[in-house]
Amino acid sequence: MARKPRMASKTGVYHFINRGVNKKKIFHKAEDRAFYWGLLKEYSGRFGVAIFHYCFMANHTHLLLKADELSALSKFGHFVQRRYAYYYCKTHRWSEQVFRSRFLSIPVEDDVYMLECGRYIERNALETGLVGDLATYPYSSFRYYALGRKDELVTESPLYQTMGTSKKERMGAYRFYVCQARENETRLSVSF
């Protein structure tokens, strides 16, 4: 059966998800995440992809990114997945499939969804109980936006600029927006 073609986003923004096969861990140590981060940095530069938000969990990753051309998104995802799979198999002596399937890319068509998607991505470690304070989780873009930490992978989201007139104001508003629990909050549901 042929794969469904990727849906193109009118805005060029996508929620990009990679998951380990059978929900198997794809990161076992800090070096694994560092290698993956390096691949994202290399191939985002090569294919003109801007990464606004990211979070690396043990068995999957989330990115909110912008790729003006669908072909650039496909090449970016292909090379990141392929190179990481080679690395993983060699490093962890694994000889089977690493990722569940090709990456998932969900078109993000409006600013409201873009804000909520970024929030969802960065709350992942909190929602799963991995950490009690997002500021302590080093594998996401939260510290870039909320604490002003340098992160060469992140291209600042254009919506972040609308959260205040100064950097300090934006960081405070962002921390509140992401960290504040909402009554009856529903999580974005993504399965593939």
Characteristic key phrases:
single chain; 192 residues; alpha+beta; four-stranded antiparallel beta sheet; 40% helix
Summarize the structure in words.
The protein has 192 residues and is α+β, with helices and mostly antiparallel strands. The chain has helices spanning 30-47, 70-92, 111-127, 142-147, 167-179, and strands at residues 13-19, 49-56, 60-67, 104-108. Strands 2-3-1-4 form a 4-stranded antiparallel beta sheet, sandwiched between helices. A hairpin with a 3-residue loop joins β2 (49-56) and β3. α1 packs antiparallel against α2. The longest helix has 23 residues, at 70-92.
Write the layout of secondary structure elements.
Layout (H helix, E strand, L loop, with lengths): L12 E7 L10 H18 L1 E8 L3 E8 L2 H23 L11 E5 L2 H17 L14 H6 L19 H13 L13
Helix pairs in contact: 1-2
pLDDT < 50 stretches: 188-192
Counted beta strands: 4
Order of strands, widest sheet:
2-3-1-4
Helical amount: 40-55%
- Strand residue percentage: 5-15%
Question: Could you tell me the radius of gyration in angstroms?
Answer: 16 Å
What is the mean pLDDT? Answer: 93
Q: State the oligomer.
A: single chain
- Choose one word for the global shape: globular
Determine the number of helices (DSSP H or I, runs of at least 4 residues): 5
Major sheet summary line: 4 strands, antiparallel
Look at the helices and sheets and give the structural class: alpha+beta
Q: What is the ordering of alpha helices and beta strands?
A: EHEEHEHHH
Terminal Cα span: 16 Å
